[in-house]
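Sample intake sheet
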Amino acid sequence: MLLLLAIPAALLARWYGLDGVWQFLLSIVALLPLASLMGESTEELAARAGSIVGGLMNATFGNAAELLIAFFALQAGKINVVKASIAGSLLANLLFVLGISIFVGGVKHHRQSFNKQAAGLLATLLTLSLLAYILPTLFDMAQRTYYGITNPITSDNKYSLIVAAVLIAVYLANLLFSLVTHRDMLIGSAEKEETRWTTAYSLGVLLISTVGVALMAEIMVANLEEATRQLGLTEFFVGIVILPVVGNVAEQFAAVKFAIVNKMDLSVQIAVGSSLQIALLMAPLLVVTGSLIGRPFNLVFLNPLVLTALVAAIFIVNAVVKDGETHWLEGVMLLGVYALLTFAFFFAPH
């Protein structure tokens, strides 16, 4: 709780115009206790609502900060940073958050299990989202090579709006399926547990901590360019690694915490469900928002390294969750893939 002092410190640093690096670092430190509070309040709510709703709530509130970060970057015209942050958020959740949760949980517990039907549904939807991201890229390439169009951005934007509408519809259908029509098939093994906080108190803490995360994230983004320039990092690396890791702090704390106490249903729902929400809801909303604010945004990822990374991440996650059981070695494998990709992004010329 002492780390909460970093919140007023970051605000004062911004108020008095201290060096951007200090504002950047203080805001990152402040995100840690706020994320911890988000995870604790979500756990209290999940104890009443169950793993499906609890995981959905944590993913939603955890992605709120990332959505704000992406919106600020989109408004500033940093299209490539936004695209990198979308891909990076998917990779961070699927490989880093899920990997460290499985590893930490597996060290304490010999073998952990979860509802493989629920996890399998999430993995299948992720595969669908991957296809939805590959198609706009292929659409762009086809226009350039087959039709000889040198700058097909207008067509890319129109097609991305259609893709965004379909993805949002699929996400809403998934909510209906998971929360209403087939809830009994997807619930975890422990749906009702003892709680320490009231529902109102849990919601209050969750709301306040979410606002704090968004505020600290805004300070971080405002000073990101200056801080990374002094640290010698590329804009691409910042977008695909640094922003997602910092923005996913809430999911990291919550997923690991649940894995330690052997609640892998919630850990999987948070890590994979958060990725699904980014792919099917957050990115499409950015496409729609971009067209409304005069900053057209599309889902074309021409960087082959990014597309390969997404394919690899979704492939290995499908392999890990298909049997409904995990052990610490599977966590090491996920973290190993993420480490390899991080070094590739770091050394990539951009």
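Comment: Residues 51-69+78-189+231-347 form a domain with the A middle domain of Talin 1 fold (CATH 1.20.1420.30). The longest strand covers residues 112-113.
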